[in-house]
Amino acid sequence: MAVGMAMKADQVGQYNYSKKITLFVVLSCMVASMGGILFGYDIGISGGVTSMDSFLKKFFPEVYRRMKEDKEVSNYCKFESELLTSFTSSLYIAGLVASFVASIINDSFGRKPTIIIAGIAFLAGSGFGGWGYNVYILILGRVLLGIGVGFANQSVPLYLSEMAPPNLRGAINIGFQFCVGIGVLMANLINYGTQKIEAGWGWRISLAMAAAPALVLTIGAIFLPETPNSLIQRGADQKKTKLMLQKVRGTDDVQAELNDLIDASNNTKTIKKPFRNILKSNYRPQLVMAIAIPFFQQVTGINVIAFYAPILFRTIGLGESASLMSAVVTGCVGIVTTFLSMLSVDRLGRRTLFMFGGVIMLVSQIMVGAVLAAKLGDEGGISKGWSYIVLILICVYVAGFGWSWGPLGWLVPSEIFPLEIRSAGQSITVAVGFLFTFIIAQTFLAMLCHFKSGIFFFFGGWVLVMTLFVHFLLPETKNVPIEQMERVWKGHWFWKNVVGGDKYNEVT
């Protein structure tokens, strides 16, 4: 057994790659990660805006009337409106379609142009949002933001994973989710401030402020270097690629990594239709993860909190201002725990974080559901004490997500695809994520009305399923170079039977 473990370390854990982290890489990844801030801002801003009285009164008067006047409507049903949920969910159906277009641009022109297009789309969407004079203009703005999100989510995680040295790839890639958390917190803080504008147009500032990080991303992306992986994939001269790789790694000794990039590039030339080839059995593990991980990330129920936290807090009886401040608190918790995940992911590994996070989310969701079932009826609210208990439990849940499925749901898919199917695999990951984000965003208020407190037991059941999925089917990928990732599948107890690997010891 000891011999087997030693062989595993030799064959999977040790690679002749530079482990330096250069200022060049840090600055490049910081600029690219602005795409995460924009994604988080767009997630966080909609829930706060749609809970503001001035916004509801102008665009959704029937919802406003039910919330303020109709005592016969259940607490869980006051915000139910297909048009209201369309305002939130339209972003994600647009992102789903855009991600496939972004895949083609990613492959043909590189990561950098894809990020630039994302920034331009964000700018246009924020303009329509701030200017909107009817709900359809607002939805058009959300669609443009969705295009930006589709392009950013397709390109930024790949950019970060390809620029990072293998031993720090987890921490650098989680920077994307960390920036998503910063974006959510920024949105919550801005919503809390603009809600206090008595003239009733504060929501315009909230929607238009997305232009600030969008401008930084667009201008910054112009100066971004292209990744060595993308250069070699698109036929760049090997000397040029080597010079870029030396600059990225901060050393002249990059031949081993360059050779792996060239080998991967040669494989891409034999694959003309990556979306068809990803269906082949030797890519079956990657395809399963490309579908399962974003699906599970969405059915954790996190977007119930991200999109509708202020509405949820208003449902349990908190006022408008208190609900928005509660969303700020959960946003802070998410940032702190994501930062802790950045510090620990390359030491503890992906599986450990997934497992602990899953347990934390499961327990907290069950407890929230139990409190609401026992204390919140169809009318009135719950006491302030129980409201704070619900808030604490939701913060515990957000901490579990920020520690695990939040960052790792982006990290793991971005690092497991070989170069020849990388953009196709990332497109599937992003598209599946957007599809189920759209479904949950569009149906949540109706589900809340019908399931009531049972909504938390519903999502808790999915957390149990996905934790078991990780335990049995996801191998550990920490410290494995991105171009040698096929080793983890050939050494896994289950996947080696699918891909035909038997020359490596089991990797779990």
UniProtKB/TrEMBL annotation:
May I ask which residue range the UniProt record assigns to the signal sequence?
Answer: none
Q: Cross-referenced SUPFAM superfamilies, in alphabetical order?
A: MFS general substrate transporter
Q: Which UniProt keywords apply?
A: Membrane, Sugar transport, Symport, Transmembrane, Transmembrane helix, Transport
The topology of this chain with respect to the membrane is: Multi-pass membrane protein
- Please give the organism: Daucus carota subsp. sativus (Carrot)
Protein family (similarity comment) = Belongs to the major facilitator superfamily. Sugar transporter (TC 2.A.1.1) family.
Q: What is this protein called?
A: Major facilitator superfamily (MFS) profile domain-containing protein
GO cellular component assignments: membrane
Kindly list the GO molecular function terms attached to this UniProt entry.
monosaccharide transmembrane transporter activity; symporter activity
Superkingdom to which the source organism belongs: Eukaryota
Where do the Major facilitator superfamily (MFS) profile domain residues begin and end? 28-478
What sections of the protein cross the membrane?
21-41, 83-102, 114-133, 139-160, 172-190, 202-224, 287-309, 321-341, 353-374, 386-406, 427-448, 454-474
What the entry lists under InterPro entries is as follows: MFS_dom (IPR020846), MFS_STP/MST-like_plant (IPR044778), MFS_sugar_transport-like (IPR005828), MFS_trans_sf (IPR036259), STP/PLT_plant (IPR045262), Sugar/inositol_transpt (IPR003663), Sugar_transporter_CS (IPR005829)
Where is this protein localized, as stated in its record?
A: Membrane
